[in-house]
Sequence to fold (351 residues):
Amino acid sequence: MVKTRAAILTDKATFGDLPLFKNGLEVKEIETSEPQSTDAVVKVQAAALNHRELWILKGLYPKIVHGGPIGADAVGVLEKPGNSSVETGTRVLVCPSVNWESNRRGPKPNAFRILGLLPDPGTMTDTLIIDGKEVVPCPEHLSTSEAAALPLAGLTAYRALFIKAEARAGDNVLITGIGGGVALFALQFAVACDINVYVTSSSEEKIACALKWGAKGGVNYKDPNAGKKLKELLGKDNYLSAIIDGAGGAMFDQYADLMIPGGIIAQYGQTSGPGVSYTMDLWFNNIDLRGSTMGSRTEFKEMVEFVDKHKIKPIVSKEYKGLTQENVDQAITYLSEGEQLGKVIIEIGQR
Fold:
């Protein structure tokens, strides 16, 4: 057996100040099975939290299984390569997708999973045992925290922006909810490709930061005139080619008036409610609504190569030093408050 320290999902509500949380986390020593011949062993340096962990803790995520480590993002040093071609001692990133090799349309039915829920391992641990095919060399320009921030949100943004929304240089693209990890990566990726980016947020501070990072303009989605103001920012006879949306919020009903015929809405999340309405003004104008969840192993490798080529540095909101109960509790509480601008990182092992 292999001993490791990990943040384990429990069925006990350990976050007393967060009454919506039905589940909890316990940081403790556990024993895991010895690695198989195909398994890679990664000594984790840092892991990141995602809003997915909040949904799991609230009991609102499908197929929750207690008793295993949480987390889908990690950077670490490869201790044993398994069936990977990466050399021992290399700093690596871990692909968060499971059972999705390369199909651009999507994974096989009922096969796709994401790290961080049993039966799959989670990354919030000091020793990660995973199929060797899931590790790729980490770009050298990234710090430990920047590297940990990249996998899940970076992959989600890459697929939504380039594969599903088909965004290209010169396009006008709206990215909603700027401040979250996926939205920020979509902004960075788009700016790197000379795409004209517009953003929404309820925070003027976050909009100002997006402008600093290359966005052309932004509007407060809580403003009842947000759509009209966005059209003014676009200018006469200019429209959106695509929208990268993780909320499906109040502005969704205004999208048709802002988009070119044949535009694409890439929907990677539904944080504002149970669903959206695909109305006549959308289909009449040939506007596609395309769901987008994570991405394949092939797309993960493409995304990492893209980040390396353009020397993109993920935006980190806050770092916690050490995999302790106190740090995990504080990091989850901070993420739940929704004030972050970038990713929340827990540094675990040696840099």
Summary: DSSP finds ten helices and 17 strands in the chain.
